[in-house]
Amino acid sequence: MHPTHKKSSLHRLSGAALLLVAAGAMAQPIYRNVDKNGKVTFSDRAPTASTEPAAAPQAGITAPANAGLPYELRQVAQRYPVTLYSSEECAPCGTARSLLVTRGIPFEERTVKSNQDVEALQRLSNQSSLPLLTIGSQQLKGYSDAEWSQYLDAAGYPKSNSLPAGYRNPPARPLVAAQPAPAAREPAPVAQPAPAAPAPSGPSPSNPAGIKF
After folding, report:
1. 87 is a domain residue
2. Is residue 101 part of a domain?
3. Biggest alpha carbon–alpha carbon distance for the chain
4. Phi, psi of 135 (to 5 degrees)
5. CATH no. for residue 139?
6. Which of 212 and 87 is assigned the larger pLDDT?
7. Which residues contact 69 (CB under 8 A, 6 or more apart)?
8. What are the distances in angstroms from CA 212 to CA 62, 196, 197, 198, 205?
9. How many whole angstroms separate alpha carbon 128 and alpha carbon 141?
10. Would you give the DSSP letter of residue 80?
11. Number of separate domains in the chain
12. What is the pLDDT of residues 43-82, one digit of tens each?
């Protein structure tokens, strides 16, 4: 074989091998690793307890409410979710909300307005006073800056705001979801009586003379 042809064949073989290697590399999964400080790195190693695959969310699936939080804060929020129960014209409720927002606590707010809301609050806390804060299964009745801060510290929430820029807590929702009004039913049509059969006009066995009244 001519040397030039041999060299061309080697180049083609080398190119094919590189393509195979590249294809194998593309097929290998890549994982997203987050350390305890929230630093994100990417690796081909399988995830451990503190890592997650770097997979994009599938279409049609809504991301969890805490998906945009730093890793450590997300873990705390999943373990000890915070819920504020409030109502309108409640000054302590506004102060309580400001504490959570200023400190950067991800929380859900449930409002108490209707009689059904009040009944649900009484079943939940055995009282009807507000505000009420729940941290996991712990209930804190009435606002107290020192007490609320103490329990948030114990749960592992950061003392200063570490929320990402643009993060927003979900909008407040009623404690009891409003039930849709039942659709008005149309009245059933009234059956009309069948018209009486006309009396025979001529003589009949029961009326041989054909008398009409």
Report:
1. yes
2. yes
3. 134
4. -120, 100
5. 3.40.30.10
6. 87
7. 77, 106, 163, 164, 167
8. 83, 16, 15, 12, 14
9. 10
10. S
11. 1
12. 556 555 444 443 443 444 334 567 688 999 999 999 999 9
Name the pTM for this structure.
0.56
The CA-based dihedral angle spanning residues 152, 156, 157, 162, taken in that order and rounded to the nearest 10 degrees: 160
Q: In the block, which residue shows the tokens 């990402």?
A: 164
Q: How many residues does the chain have?
A: 213
Residue 70: what are its φ and ψ, rounded to 5°?
-55, 155
Q: Please report whether residue 123 resides in a domain.
A: yes
Contact between 70 and 164 (Cβ < 8 Å): yes
Contacts of 20 (CB under 8 A, 6+ apart): none
Tally helices (H) and strands (E) across the chain. 5, 8
Strand-pair category, 51-53 with 82-86: unpaired
Looking at residue 178, its pLDDT comes to: 74
List, for residues 116-143, the tens digit of each pLDDT value: 999 999 999 999 899 999 999 999 999 9
- CB neighbour burial string for 142-162, b if at least 16 within 10 angstroms, e if fewer: ebeeeebeebbeebebbeeee
**Confidence grade of residue 15 (pLDDT, cut at 50, 70, 90):** very low
Residue 37, pLDDT > 90, answer no
